[in-house]
Amino acid sequence: MSVLFQQKNTGTYEQATGEGFYPVFRKYDWDGIRTSIYEKTTSDVYRALSCKKRSLEDFKALISPAAKPFLEQMARESMRITRQRFGKTIQMYAPMYLSNECQNICTYCGFSLTNKIPRRTLTNNEILREADFLKQKGYDHILLVTGEANRTVGVSYLKNAIKLIRPYFSNISIEVQPLETEEYNALIAEGLYAVLVYQETYHEECYKIHHPKGKKSNFKYRLHTPDRLGQAEIHKTGLGALFGLEDWRTDSFFTALHLRYLQKKYWKTRYSISFPRLRPHSGGLEPKVVMTDTDLAQLIFAYRLLDEDVELSLSTRESMAFRDNMIKLGVNSISAESKTNPGGYVVDPKSLEQFEICDERTTEEIAGMIRRKGYEVVWKDWEKGY
Amino acid sequence: MQSNTLTIAGTEFTSRLFIGTGKFSSASLMNKAVLASGSELATVALKRVNPEDQTEDIHTALQKTGIRLLPNTSGVRTAKEAVFAAQLAREALETNWIKLEIHPDPKYLLPDPVETLLATEKLVKLGFVVMPYIHADPVLCKRLEEVGAQCVMPLGAPIGSNKGLKTLDFLEIIVEQSSVPVIVDAGIGSPSHAAAAMEMGADAVLVNTAIAVSDNPIAMAEAFKLAVRAGRTAYTARLAPVKTGAEASSPLTSFLSENQ
Ligand code: SF4
């Protein structure tokens, strides 16, 4: 039986201790959670589908193998809730890779330290050229991405980059190395809106195997990044697990647990979830666990049924057919025409990608598809000064 | 079997029914009702406590039951007055627990959110266990939690109205979001209201008028005791879901099987 969200039954409460998520996380045992998910029955799923407020136990049922025959019902409910909460709108964003330098070894990533690839970090001028291209395409929400190389792409580099592109975009997010609270404060002051930080896997031992070297090998520091973001009162924090490293169901349970913990503690922050699946890259690691399209759809429906407000985002890692269909069924934000190499749009289209994308359509094609489905394409949805 | 106690500031309560002590026709009837309710916490208005009075006042009568007393600041209109009242209560009743009630409005006795937040912050710093009575306002609840309130006590309906859970939608949000116990206070007029609050996931309820002014306060106290237990048990057992009819429409997920 899970502890934290059964606590209302036992009368004890998780007080805001300032200790962060780790002590909460440690109360759960990976194998026990895994077993309890796989042991969920049809009646657990039935209950989870019918109740008004869903608990993490219900979420387990919805991601369990027992829920497979209920996919259609889950899709219908997910569509209904998403329409009620977000209307018929889809937000658009584009990633902008600033650097492929990285001091870490991550077994699944093309930018990994030991990968012999030419490294480059965009200069001011190059950043502006890339920004200009994306602006022309209509983007107003930009996600800046770097590897983890504190000397070249540390806080001052990021601060500078945000300052540079600030006049062009009203919504700037980052997906970079975890930072300290004060560093986040400094970036927020420059106009940073959101930070995405994926735990990759919540399986502590497995995490160590995939992150053998570099700062990223510190599991706990990474796990506490959303706590530091909450303390900095960031507008939005993005969570997620990288699917392929470990059992996706168990990793998703822990992501949901993390989400609920954060929502209660840092209630002024908005949260989003992403669903990266391992994609081919230079030096490729074969996924240990395969997650099919059906699995991913089930997971997206389950998140929407758990939480009507959480933002669900789908990247160009996914196929055209999958993305087109999922637009209506639960997600509310997607990227398009992404390049996952620094300078990939105009400066240096040939530099090495972090991973291959799947949906290669242009921004215009994707925006057209969204409109044809009767949805509004939202480019701008935030204004600095809030 | 799970332990089903409620903990506030390290103190465990086996009963989730808290009781108010105003409006009883006599101290002895009140005592009997309190005992019948099984409650372990009774609020007492500081304004009615008179430490000098040796006759049988509410305070001394209640002490005989052995129940824990929770002084309230009823009658104050500002944070400043509330802090002063809490300090007086701490001396008079030798407890650092305080039910914070600030209502500048003498008619409906509606709580002032701004003054309540200010007073809670101050009282927590002074070492009090603060239990604020508030409107069913989810944001205010989070703000109170942040400044150190040990629980929140949102109202179900105007105090003394017996109208039940008029603020249900907001109470549900509060219960969902809260990291501290949620005690539904004010408005609960019948055992079924109390049971509904408990079924919805409230951690406890506080009842006064409905018991005190009934024809038989002792029997009514017992009825509330049973209702709170029933509601809580139903909550922990998880209510069976409401069945929704199936709607036929063209499948949304057929693309998945095609895709695999
Ligand atoms: S995943 Fe990030 S930290 Fe790891 S090697 Fe790639 S860029 Fe570096």
Explained architecture:
The complex is a heterodimer of chains A (386) and B (260). Chain A has helices at residues 7-10, 22-25, 30-38, 42-50, 56-63, 71-86, 124-137, 150-153, 155-165, 181-190, 204-210, 219-223, 225-231, 248-265, 293-306, 320-326, 363-372, and strands spanning 89-97, 141-145, 171-175, 192-196, 236-240, 270-274, 311-314, 333-335, 376-378. With 386 residues, chain A is α/β, with parallel strands linked by helices. In chain A, helix 16 links the parallel strand 7 (311-314) and strand 8. The longest helix of chain A is centred in the middle third of the chain and has 18 residues, at 248-265. The radius of gyration of chain A is 20 Å and the shape is globular. The termini of chain A are far apart. Chain B has ten helices and ten strands. In chain B, the strands form three sheets. Chain B has a five-stranded parallel sheet with strand order 5-4-3-10-9. A three-stranded parallel sheet of chain B has the order 6-7-8. In chain B, strand 6 (97-100), helix 4 and strand 7 (129-134) form a beta-alpha-beta unit. The longest helix of chain B has 21 residues, at 217-237. Chain B is globular and about 80 Å long. The termini of chain B are far apart. The A-B interface holds A 6, 8-16, 46-47, 49-53, 71-72, 75-76, 79, 263-265, 267, 292-294, 297, 319, 321-322, 325, 328-329 and B 2-7, 12-13, 142, 145-146, 172, 175-181, 201, 203, 235-236, 238-244, 247, 249, 251-253, 255-257, 259-260. Bound molecules: iron/sulfur cluster.
